[in-house]
Every structure is written in C-alpha cells, then in structure tokens.
Description:
The chain is mainly alpha-helical and 81 residues long.
Amino acid sequence: MTKQMIIRINPEVKDKLNKLARTEGKTTSQMVRELLEDYIKERDIGAYVDNLWDRIGGKLRSKRVKPRDINSAIKAVRKRQ
Length: 81
C-alpha cells in the first residue's frame, strides 16, 4: 500500500519536471518515486553491504568453499600480519 506525501517545490522546477515526465511517458508522481528510490538506493549502506555479502557468499558456494576453509584462510592471513 502506498502513502501520500506532500512537498513544496519551486514552480519552475515543477514545470520542468512535468515536461520531462511527459517526454518519458510517465506521470510526475512516477518520476518523483523513481528519484526518491534511486536516492535511497545510492545511500543505503546497510543494503549495499548485505548485497555484497550475498554476492560473496554465492561465489564461495559456487566454488564449494566451506566455512572451515574460510576460517582457515582468515587465521593464516592473521598469522602473517
């Protein structure tokens, strides 16, 4: 379910946004939603880190790396420091 949000913007900015939305075949609301979603994605470090761990885990699983192998590698690297 979506919620309504009311914002105040400069009239010139609103007119430009309306024109851009029309040229892209979108509504102004669609444009604002996309802009906000992109803004949040770019700045949500927690989601970025979670995604990174998921990708790393997937690569390790595809190479059949086991948790004990990872622990051994970490211990070996720490001994070298």
